[in-house]
Amino acid sequence: MAVEPVGALEMERKFQADDCDDAKKMSKKSFNESKKLWEIAAPAIITAVSQFSIGFVSVAFVGHLGSLELAAISVVQNVIEGFVYGVMLGMGSALETLCGQAVGAERFDMLGIYLQRSCVITLVTSLFLTPFYVFTSPILKLLHQDKRIAEIAGKYAIWVIPQLYAYALNFPVQKFLQAQSKIWVMTIINVVVLVFHIVLNWVLVTKLGHGLLGAAMAGNISWWLVVLAQNIYVISGFFPESWTGFSILAFKSLWNFVKLSLASAVMLCLELWYFTVVILMVGWLKNPEIKVDAVSTSLDLQLWVLMITLGFNAAISVRVSNELGAGRPKAAKFSVVIAVITSTIVGVVFTVAVIATKNYYPRMFSDKPEVLHETSKLSYFLAATIFLMSIQPILHGVAVGAGWQYSVAIINVVCYYIIGLPLGACLGYIANIGVNGIWTGMLVGTLLQTIVLMYKMWKANWRKEAIYAEERIRTYGDQPSQDGIEQTGSRGTSPLPVVT
């Protein structure tokens, strides 16, 4: 029998030791990256879920009043407020870039100016959006929605106009706080208000019997409590460098700010409006009341889960932009891998939970046997959507971090509006499959978009992306000082903000 040389045995042991060391290093690296993601994602998730749950709670209380009331509030939240929410969140998102640049350049004095400029723009935008609330009823009738639902929805929309102006102030303040890593204070404010909102709905809707008006009053009060608490926190002396009081400079350079705000809104709105159009398409079916209730209930639950994955969206956007800005393309790519794996695991958990509770979760929204049955039948479609939407926001976050907003907006248009919705219309109306056909089209568009974005991430040249990031930092990072001389801070060029 041949005897293996001693040198070969020693070499084999060395390879095994190296493999073990590599495994330990990879495990430690993965743990550290996951920890960084969760440090950003956890408070962002809690904040997003708390704010979305304000509307979620209202739907849950109103759903026990009757199917017409449930359909009305669902249509307003998914169509009118979904449209407005997307615009406002997108407009406020311009501060993610500008406040981050100011922090990186150590020009903290500009943060307050940027915040005020953004508030001016979002408040003016809310004025232009107010007619959508005032004319909700004729708009819904023009879109061939059920007349009874449209009439009730029109009244409710007028009652919740104060929430529109709360959105206008909420999102700029949020971005101002996030840029300075003051996320947990914002999170605590939103959680406390959510608890208060539940009690307020119980009092106004259930105990006092004010119905839809009570739900509207509760929503208005709760949203303005969030806004007032966050604004008091900003102006109460906790930010001596970044908030120095109101300034006339807030009204200067508004046009450039508007262009950046609009660019930030495009990609997000294309995403949110996709689900809005689905609700409208279901409303065009025959006898839509029960179908709208079932689909709206399902999408409300899906959007609630989406608020969780949006926390990872914020986290991976920060991680990718930080690593690319620091010239570490391999680290950026590794962050993407860890984020996708983490969010997918979360998605699998929720997918299984939906299927396991398909006969129970609809009871949170309605007591009507017809609505419960119809919602339960859609559970598998909902589970598939939730799984895909656990991955998709991560890919969007990578796009924001790498600066791919325009290309992703084009991908959204093709996958959603050229393929997904027309396919859903063909299956739902021409093939007469109804709600299942419309939702199948939506799923196909979402799946196609996810595949295209995954391919784009996989084929990306991350070294080139790091070079592009360096060019953007050099171009946009510096801010003019008050004496007209460009100032870059103590580090020369201005890196992207590092959130810890």
Can you walk me through this structure?
The protein has a two-stranded antiparallel ribbon. Helices cover 81% and strands 1% of the residues. The C terminus is likely disordered. A hairpin with a 5-residue loop joins strand 1 and strand 2. Helix 7 runs parallel beside helix 9 and helix 11 packs across helix 13. The N and C termini lie far apart (61 Å). The chain is globular, with a radius of gyration of 25 Å. Pfam families: MatE. Belongs to the multi antimicrobial extrusion (MATE) (TC 2.A.66.1) family.
Keywords:
single chain; 500 residues; mainly alpha; 2 domains; globular; disordered C terminus
Calculate the terminal CA-CA distance, rounded to whole Å: 61 Å
Q: What is the makeup of the main sheet? A: 2 strands, antiparallel
Detail the poorly predicted runs: 475-500
Question: What's the shape?
Answer: globular
Describe the secondary structure blueprint for this structure.
Blueprint: H1 6-62, H2 67-92, H3 94-104, H4 109-134, H5 136-142, H6 147-159, H7 161-179, H8 183-207, H9 211-235, H10 254-283, H11 288-325, H12 329-356, H13 369-377, H14 379-402, H15 405-430, H16 435-459, H17 462-476, E1 479-480, E2 486-487
Antiparallel strand pairs: 1-2
Helix pairs in contact: 1-2, 1-8, 1-9, 1-11, 1-12, 2-4, 2-6, 2-7, 2-10, 2-11, 3-4, 3-7, 4-7, 5-6, 7-9, 8-9, 10-11, 10-15, 10-16, 11-12, 11-13, 11-14, 11-17, 12-14, 12-17, 14-16, 15-16
